[in-house]
Amino acid sequence: MPRVVVFDEFGGPEVMRVVEEPVVEPAAGEVRVRMEAFAVNPIDRMMRSGTSPAPVPLPHARLGVEGTGVLDALGPGTTGLKIGDPVVLTAVPDPSARGSYAEYTTVPASRVVARPAGLGITEAAAVWVAYSTAYGALVEKAGMRPGDHVLITAASGGVGRAAMQIARQIGAVPIAVTRHTARRDELLAAGAAAVVATDHADIAEAVGRHTGGAGADIVLDLVMGPGQQDLLKAARPGGTLVAAGFLDPRPAPFPGGPPLTVFGYRSFEHTLDAVAVKRMAAFLNAGLRLGALRPAVDDKAFSLDDVVEAHRHLEKGLHAGKKIVVTVS
To answer: CB neighbours of 84 closer than 8 A, spacing ≥ 6?
Structure first.
């Protein structure tokens, strides 16, 4: 029988186990995907540890919001797709019930798109969540335009790297924020026009230098917490802050300082909108074709039997901000 990763209690990576379960037939309007690979995301760790913002019902919970595979079966009424199509999952609305950490999963037919041409399986498994989140926050929500100075926190992570590439593709100017000066060269190589390292620089002062004193037009906050106050000081009056992360669980004080437009953002806001997904997929395909976009994947290989080690790799930070991918077949 097909294998799937489940957990019955919250805790460290060791709570996960691989079990066998019967294959599920897709319901009306659904598709079944034979998974080839999936990516490990921070939300997976939060679900597994019991710190997810959304409740996770136990026992026998599942994981996984991202991955790629081949259509294996179509439910009644499903049109426009055919068995054998290689696809990328664009959203798994109920990952605790049918996540992507499995040999097979079923999702609504509207939650898959054709796998972009020219991407290998590991890159395809890691491309959607980071790029759709960054695109949704910067383009759909903040209305990023050419010439905008865009301040990006957690720039070494998957979404941060995607945001820098997307800003470049639009013609905006990405300014990366990192805690460590040692990551400056790495971030410049990843697409940053400038890097602000908070272990040696004041954010507002540094951003002022890089923007001719104007401040950032858009701030993409992928961390949250009290540090958001420093980002607000770096924004220009009338600019936009998009709070799209949750890496710092501490409360973020109500934004003060210069007048700003402030948005909260979660990727499902657009990935559950078929029209927005069509725009996202078109932008992603164009960027990949031109070479402007390319996901960064960790070099270490993991199989489904190695899923516990993959999560340990994530928790120890050994991936250096690159996506961890687990191959299924």
So the answer is: 70, 71
Q: pLDDT, tens digit, for every residue of 206-228? A: 999 999 999 999 999 998 766 67
20: containing domain: 3-127+295-327
The residue with tokens 């501490």 is 250
Q: Write phi, then psi, for 13 (nearest 5 degrees).
A: -55, -30
Residue length, the chain? Answer: 329
Alpha helices in the chain (DSSP H): 42-49, 95-98, 121-125, 128-135, 158-170, 184-190, 203-210, 228-234, 268-271, 274-290, 307-315
Instruction: Give the tokens for residue 16.
Output: 């996960």
Q: Are residues 85 and 205 in the same domain?
A: no
Residues 241, 308 within the same domain = no
Instruction: Provide mean pLDDT across the span 298-313.
Output: 96
In angstroms, the Cα distances linking 49 to 6, 16, 320, 321 are: 13, 10, 21, 20
Q: Is residue 274 part of a domain?
A: no
Q: What is the pTM (predicted TM-score) of this model?
A: 0.91
- Determine the 3-state secondary structure of 107 from DSSP: strand
- First-to-last alpha carbon distance for the chain, in angstroms, is 14
